[in-house]
Amino acid sequence: MDYADMLLLRFGEFTLKGKNRARFEKTVLRHVKEMTKPYPKVVLTKEFGRIYVELNGEPAVDLVEALKNVFGIASVSPVKVAKSDLEDIVAVSRQFLEIIAPAPGTTFKVNARRVWKGFPYGSMEMNKLVSTPLLQGYSGLTVDVKSPQLELRVEIRQGHTYIFCENITGVGGFPLGTNGKAMLLLSGGIDSPVAGWSSMRRGLEVECVHFYSYPYTSELARQKVVDLTRVLSRYAGVIKLHLVPFTEVQTSFTGIGQDNLIITLMRRAMLRITTQLAEREGALAIVTGESLGQVASQTLPSMNVIGRATDLPLLRPLVMMDKSDIVELSKNIGTYELSILPYEDCCTLFVPKSPTTNPNLRIVDKIEATLPSYSALLDAAIEATETVLITPYGDEKPREVVSAQAGLQEEWF
Ligand code: ATP
Ligand code: MG
C-alpha cells in the first residue's frame, strides 16, 4: 500500500446515533490526531462520514496499522489521488494497476462514482472510459462485473478524484470516552487487559486500578502492570493508573480462621476501595476480567457475594467468553506476552488450598462487620494510593522484554 497518497478513514456504526453524531465524529478526529502526532507531515481533513489523511511522504503501512485501531473507524482505504480530469484519472489508474500488478487472469471491474455533478461524464460512462484503456494495456485482466477479484473504485469529487481498491477493516466500536468512564480492575493476568480494551472499544474511558502487596509482591509485578497499562494507552493516548497498596488490608484477613473465604474478602475489599476511587474520579461503573466458571471466585455464587460489595454496575466484558478467544484477543491487542510473565499477583500469594466456590453472604458480612477497624484500613489504602498518568511514549522505562516483544510499539509512536 506504499503507493498511497492518502488514507480514507470511514466512520462506523455510531453514525446511526442522530444528534450525537457530530460529537462522536469530533472525538474520532481528536483520537486520529493523537495517533498521527509522530508523523508531522500528515494533514487531516474531516468530511461528512469520513476523514482524509494526506500522507505527504509519511509511511502508509505504519499509519494504516495505527489508524485502523482507532475506535469508531470502520474501514481504511489507501488511496491514490488524481485531478478530476478524465486524462489524469486514466493515467493515475494505469499507474495504480502497474503498482499493484494483478496476476494474469485476475477478474476486474471499475466502479466509478460521480459525486461532483459538475464533472462532464456520468458514473456509468466513467466505468467504460476508465476500464477500456486499462484492459487494453493489461491483457491479463478479464472483466467480471458481479464479483470481481479486483474492484477499482474511482470517486470523482470537485478538485480531486480518489482511486482505491483496498478496504481494510477497522476496529469499529464507539469513539473513545463517548459512553462515559469506568474503573478497570487491572491485575497482571491475561483477562483484565482484554476486558479493558473491550470496554474502551465500547466508548468507555477507562482508569486502571491495581492492588499490590509489597513486599510480598515484587517491584517487577508492579512494573508489569505499568507496562500493561502502557500497551492499553496505545489505544487511548493516555490512561490514569491508580496503584493501591493492599498489604495491610490483605493481611487483616489472614488469621481469622476462614481461609477459604480469603479470596472473597479480598475481592470485596478491592471493590469497596475502587467504588470510592470511582466516586472521586467521576466513574460510573467497574470493569473486571472475570469469566464465568474460570476459577473458584468466578462461579455464580462467588460473583453474587463479591458483587454485592458495590452499588456501581459491575461490567464483565469477558463473562461468557472462552479462554482461547480471550487469549487470541490479548495477542491481537499486544498484551499477551506481558501477561504471561511469571510475576506473582497479590491474590495468588494468599490463595488458600481450597477457596470456596459457594461463599455465604451472611457469614462474609459478619466477618467484615467484626474486623477491627476494617473501614479505616480501606481508607488508609485509598489515602496511600499513587496515581500515575501513562502514555505510549511516557517516562516510566519499559523493561527490555517490552521493547523486544513490541517492536510494534516503536513503530506506532
Ligand atoms: P486476570 O487474568 O485478569 O488476572 P483471572 O482469570 O486471573 O483474571 P482472577 O485473578 O481471579 O482472575 O481475577 C479476577 C478479576 O479481578 C481480574 O480480571 C481483575 O479484574 C481483578 N483483579 C484480580 N487481581 C487484581 C489486582 N491485583 N488488582 C486489580 N484487580 C485485580
Ligand atoms: Mg489473575
From TrEMBL:
It is found in: Cytoplasm. ATP binds at residues 185-186, 210-211, 267, 289, 298. It catalyses: [ThiS sulfur-carrier protein]-C-terminal Gly-Gly-AMP + S-sulfanyl-L-cysteinyl-[cysteine desulfurase] + AH2 = [ThiS sulfur-carrier protein]-C-terminal-Gly-aminoethanethioate + L-cysteinyl-[cysteine desulfurase] + A + AMP + 2 H(+); [ThiI sulfur-carrier protein]-S-sulfanyl-L-cysteine + a uridine in tRNA + 2 reduced [2Fe-2S]-[ferredoxin] + ATP + H(+) = [ThiI sulfur-carrier protein]-L-cysteine + a 4-thiouridine in tRNA + 2 oxidized [2Fe-2S]-[ferredoxin] + AMP + diphosphate. Pathway: Cofactor biosynthesis; thiamine diphosphate biosynthesis. Coiled coil: none annotated. Its main location: cytoplasm. The keyword Cytoplasm applies. It comes from the Bacteria. GO terms for biological process: thiamine biosynthetic process; thiamine diphosphate biosynthetic process; thiazole biosynthetic process; tRNA 4-thiouridine biosynthesis. It is an enzyme of class 2 (transferase). Its EC number is 2.8.1.4. Residues 61-167 form the THUMP domain. One of its GO terms (molecular function) is ATP binding. One of its GO terms (cellular component) is cytosol. Keywords: ATP-binding, Cytoplasm, Nucleotide-binding, RNA-binding, Thiamine biosynthesis, Transferase, tRNA-binding. Gene3D superfamilies: 3.30.2130.30, HUPs (3.40.50.620). PANTHER family: TRNA SULFURTRANSFERASE. Belongs to the ThiI family. Catalyzes the ATP-dependent transfer of a sulfur to tRNA to produce 4-thiouridine in position 8 of tRNAs, which functions as a near-UV photosensor. Also catalyzes the transfer of sulfur to the sulfur carrier protein ThiS, forming ThiS-thiocarboxylate. This is a step in the synthesis of thiazole, in the thiamine biosynthesis pathway. The sulfur is donated as persulfide by IscS. This is Probable tRNA sulfurtransferase. It comes from Paenibacillus etheri. The lineage of its organism: Bacteria, Bacillati, Bacillota, Bacilli, Bacillales.
